[in-house]
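Ex. 9. Protein: Ribonuclease P protein component.
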Amino acid sequence: MLPKINRGLGKEEIDAVFAKNTSTKNEYFTILKREIKDETLPRFAILISKKLAKRAVDRNRMKRLVFDQIQEELSNYSPGHYVVLIKKSFEQKRPLPGNLS
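Predicted structure tokens for Ribonuclease P protein component:
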């Protein structure tokens, strides 16, 4: 699991990422990034719609899979706030795609 220091953005931080960001998209994810001058580490939040996975168990499983993948590639991310939006095609693909970006 990704270290706690790299996980969890508050509502205000997530709103700030949505307000001003650069985005990267692929078949499974949309990754929004906001550069923060004072930030020394990358911090992540994963957002999954209830329309995509109705049960919390399924949403949490997806989050764990994504956090594990991020942990493997953590050194590739520059400091800042990241919000990962999971798309519907993610749930249809098993196992987790090898590359987030």
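Check your answer against this statement. Strands lie at 22-25, 29-34, 42-47, 80-86.
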